[in-house]
Amino acid sequence: MKVNGFFKDVTGASRVTKARHQLIESGNPENIYKDHIREVAQEVHPKVTHVKCAKVEDVSPTARKFTFVPTDGDVLPPFMAGQYASVELEIPGEDGKVTKTTRPFSISSAPFQARQGDKSFFELTIRNGKPGVGFVSSWMYANCKEGSTFTFHLPLGQFYYEPLRDAKKVVALAGGSGITPFYSMAQEIAHGTMDCDLTILYGSVSTKDIILEKQLSAIQSPRVRFVNVISGEPDYPGEKGFLNADLIRKYSEGDPADGNTTYFVCGPLPMYNFVNGELEKLNVPKRRIRMEVFGAPRDITKDPDYPKRDPAVYKLKVMRGLEETEIKASSLEPLAVAMERAGIPNPTRCRSGACGFCRCKLLKGDVFVPSVGDGRRYADKKFGYYHACSTYPLSDCAIKIEIC
Ligand SMILES: Cc1cc2nc3c(=O)[nH]c(=O)nc-3n(C[C@H](O)[C@H](O)[C@H](O)COP(=O)(O)OP(=O)(O)OC[C@H]3O[C@@H](n4cnc5c(N)ncnc54)[C@H](O)[C@@H]3O)c2cc1C
Ligand code: FES
């Protein structure tokens, strides 16, 4: 009986295999499975968007506006005013070695301008790239010309107005290139596709530092107000000084503590520290404050929590799948930059510790994460995961990264 059953199994298995082969032969080689939800998700959040530069325009002595249009076949995804885009770049160094990197830039044009059929575009406004100082900004200044092509990731970030959450009266506190998301919001309001009142308080040291002044002045209306605040010119006829509590109160709806105004803050790190203190003085409820991320600190050793150590170059072991590479990592740069310098692929988007794209696991070593750039989840902290763009080595280290 047992032997009979065995032969039955063997002949049965060969019949199934034959039937399977016949099915494969008669099948359609194309994947005809359609998932409409997935299709919409891909349209709204494409993996990449291919564009070409259509126009370059100076918008102040210190900033330049770049207009991008989709290259044939690509469509610009929808975004919210205030969100950012991350550009992929390959920058050749003096030694001829190419560094693959990314940089986030707030989209300075309005969402409606990206939804105009074959007239669709989006814009970035980039602050002065001084040669030898800004690595990417100076490269963009020198190389992004009409016709240059780029790969972007967009839309990204949570820095946008949400009517269900935010007060109808918005005061924007901007500094430097932090004006760009507010130009996007201002245009969207002027177009009638965003419903709030916006007052932009824009802090600059001197009048020549003001970015997009002509453009912002041109769209002023009862719903969009634009106020320059100049700190370094005593004779300036308008608002002078810093974005302090008195000034913020002056342009708010009633008492800032009442929660009738939402404050959007975007600018360099020192400005955040100052403005945060002023908003605290005014007892603004935390739910009424929205902060954009601001990138890695320029000088990590100035962080008040940074342990006092001399700059050093450490060994960093990077495990990526079955590959294991040992590279050099400066204590003054995040692990993500060390990997970029060594040509190890590691995805980045916000470069501010917020989005989690560059997540890695620390296997060995001592590192420093500035509290301002620590956007990790509780579980990640507990199980030793770090965001490589905001983690600095304090000793020889070993990390494990995802294959991208
Ligand atoms: C959400 C968000 C929105 C932003 N929006 C804007 C905007 O609208 N406009 C704007 O102007 N800026 C914006 N920024 C800032 C922008 O992303 C850049 O930080 C800024 O342009 C300066 O970049 P940079 O590369 O020129 O200078 P840095 O970022 O200061 O470049 C130096 C960095 O590159 C590294 N580096 C230097 N040389 C090399 C090399 N050879 N190989 C590898 N790495 C190297 C350095 O270690 C350092 O980390 C935004 C930032 C964020 C987070
Ligand atoms: S790139 Fe966003 S957390 Fe590192």
TrEMBL record:
Per its UniProt record, what Pfam families does this chain match? Fer2, NAD_binding_1
Q: Which GO terms describe its molecular function?
A: iron-sulfur cluster binding; oxidoreductase activity
- UniProt name for this protein: Iron-sulfur cluster-binding domain-containing protein
Domain named FAD-binding FR-type is located at 46-162
The record lists the lineage as: Bacteria, Bacillati, Bacillota, Clostridia, Lachnospirales
What PROSITE patterns is this protein classified in? FAD_FR (PS51384)
